[in-house]
Write a structure and sequence with these properties.
This protein has 7 helices and 11 strands. It is an alpha+beta fold. Strands 1-2-3-4-11-5-10-9-8-7-6 form an 11-stranded mixed β-sheet, with helices on both faces. The longest helix has 21 residues.
């Protein structure tokens, strides 16, 4: 069944809302909407935490290029590494065909693809994970573990943003879980409410501990802490098959563009 238009819009707004949450929880974060764009800046030297997204349908290649230029102006003034997040289904066919060329002309390249997914409720677990000690994120070591596991999992540098998530304000109303094996943090996931939905983010596993169900177990723990109801996420290519088995279904597709992965 093809996803409904409102689900596509929902997926885009969930992304914008989640990164708005990150920015508002940062020590010096800023959120702005202008010219069909939303900038959600934690204002830290971590590209992943400074995002620019589109807030409405992109009508044409000219519309696309104008938004890229305006976004870059904002980014240049802000002075932090950043990325653009674009929902392909919220673009005209002509604008979508021009995407890579338009960003390349601005010195930006695609580095990541996400699939917007949703589920009314997730399915029961397919296997039991018994060797993982799952703990809530309640203190500085656990917060740092979330950051470091994600950096290792997605091949991002640990420095200079090591302290960016170690804030009470960042974790306000978020339910993080870290899984430990022999007291070593190896997997993590976080869930929190965005416009009434349970949004899932920061799902990652240390490379040497993959394919054991650890991140899924952490994710289920975090979702339970976040309550009941519809859940939305944006899946990496590696996580996508796992989420399908959990009962999520595809809604739309996103592409990320940046100057570098750092």
């Amino acid at each position: 069944m093809e996803p409904a238009w409102d689900e596509i819009v929902e997926s885009n707004e969930q992304f914008l809302g989640a990164w708005k949450h990150f920015a508002e929880g940062a020590a010096d974060g800023l959120v702005a909407r202008f010219d069909g764009l939303a900038a959600m800046y934690s204002r830290v030297p971590v590209m992943f935490l400074n995002a620019i997204g589109f807030t409405s349908y992109v009508q044409s290649p000219a519309d696309l290029r104008a938004r890229i230029i305006n976004g870059q102006r904002y980014a240049a003034a802000a002075g932090f590494p950043y990325f653009f997040s674009i929902c392909k289904e919220l673009m005209s066919p002509e604008a979508r065909e021009d995407m890579d060329d338009a960003f390349a002309a601005a010195g930006l390249f695609p580095f990541f693809n996400w699939t917007g997914m949703a589920a009314e409720e997730i399915l029961p677990p397919r296997r039991s994970v018994t060797d993982l000690d799952i703990r809530d994120v309640t203190d500085s070591p656990a917060r740092r573990a979330v950051y470091e596991i994600n950096c290792h999992a997605y091949d991002m540098p640990l420095d200079p943003g090591r302290d960016s998530m170690d804030l009470d304000s960042f974790w306000a109303n978020m339910h993080g879980a870290v899984g430990y094996v022999d007291n070593r943090p190896v997997a993590t996931a976080t869930a929190f409410r965005v416009d009434g939905r349970r949004y899932v983010a920061l799902v990652a596993t240390m490379p040497d501990y993959r394919n054991r169900g650890y991140a899924e177990a952490c994710m289920r723990h975090a979702l339970q802490r976040a309550g009941a109801g519809r859940t939305v996420l944006h899946a990496t290519e590696a996580g996508h098959p796992i989420y399908l088995k959990m009962g999520y279904r595809d809604v739309c597709h996103f592409r990320m563009y940046g100057e570098s992965h750092e």
